[in-house]
Design goal:
Elements (H helix, E strand, L loop, with lengths): L4 H9 L6 E7 L3 H8 L6 E7 L5 E2 L8 E2 L12 E4 L3 E4 L7 E10 L15 E10 H8 L3 H11 L3 E7 L5 E5 L4 E4 L1 E2 L9 H15 L4 H17 L9 H5 L5 E2 L9 E4 L5 H16 L4 E2 L1 H4 L5 H13 L3 E5 L5 H12 L4 E4 L9 H5 L3 E3 L2 H15 L1
Parallel strand pairs: 1-2, 5-7, 6-7, 7-8, 8-9, 14-15, 14-16, 16-17, 17-18
Antiparallel strand pairs: 3-4, 9-10, 10-11, 12-13
Helix pairs in contact: 1-5, 3-4, 5-6
Amino acid sequence: MLFGSGFRAAACLSHFRDVRFHTYFEESEKLQFLANAKAFPFKELDLKSSSISRRFEYQTSVSSPRVNNLESDQDVAEIRINSDEPILRFGMLEKEAIVCGNRVVYDPQNPQHPLAFDANGSTAKELAIVANHREVYSLFGSNYRVGINEQFKSHPETVCVVMKYGPLGALVFTRDGNQVHIPAYRTSDVFSVGTGDVFSAYFAHFWAEEGMSPKLSAEYASKAVSIYVSEFGSIQNLDKKAIDARRFSPVGNGRPLTKPIYLAGPFFTMGDTLLLREIKHAFGSMDVPFFSPIDVVGIGAPGEVYEGDIRGLIDSSGVFANICGLDTGTIYEIGYAQAIKKPVTLFAQDCKKKDLTMLIGGGCKYYEDFTSAVYNSVWDALESE
């Protein structure tokens, strides 16, 4: 993988210190890998050859990736690291690295079957687990707060668990029993591929290297992610001073949405249904509740459909509207939502802006980028509750 999670994180950290980057690569891609690596001042590259080439393909930056090969490579050499320097360990498909260090940050990178940090013999004097919400559920159970408390009791080296929650921000759990919400910081444009990698990298820098508290480290990591997503994934030198110089708009108060987002849009053609499936996946993967009229109300008599859909609009926290094709039913729902003061996010890539004059004039926000539309729809809904 020529620019995977480890490479992205190492590239971020290379601006701060001498980075020793340990990873796997497919032999036929070595020259391209080394050419990419020259762009960053790595002190050392420890490359283990794998016979399996892997590709991650994203339909949109908020989509789950399609991986061409999930098979582990039993023949690859083991990565072993024993160091007093800070260590950031990512989970890997080829084989899990065994690390032994003082301050270690562990990001499992496996929502379905994350490996416990010490399952392969890894050790740390101080450990921070930084994982997305799906990985936290898998590691610690559906009642994850209880599971995290058990982690602190049974693993005294665990200093904190940070749960990354996409547009909802993050939660930081510390062994003194505190739980702190870290907000996401709003941007108009959102490029979300690699956001978790960037968060883990900056958290590792500020906590393991700079010695900041888990809470403050997570705040700076969240702000660094905000800059990263707004500038389409560019890797920058974002030290504390550079981050402090920016202005940020925090979103949310730590509570999830209590009302669903209403998904307005047509569902009459194959293209309609495929896009609706992608929309539902985008919100569902972030644990954001949604109301899909075709799934809840279905197809029926006009009066029944009208009453069911209007009820859904009234009970929603906001509206995400697919206006591709300018479907008349969708336009009606948007107008009704505006009349009852619901925030409305418009998504389309085939509309002329002049055709949306009344909708935009009435307060709807319009996006041609799918990921930006999804994230901002969640943020608007959070601010409306």
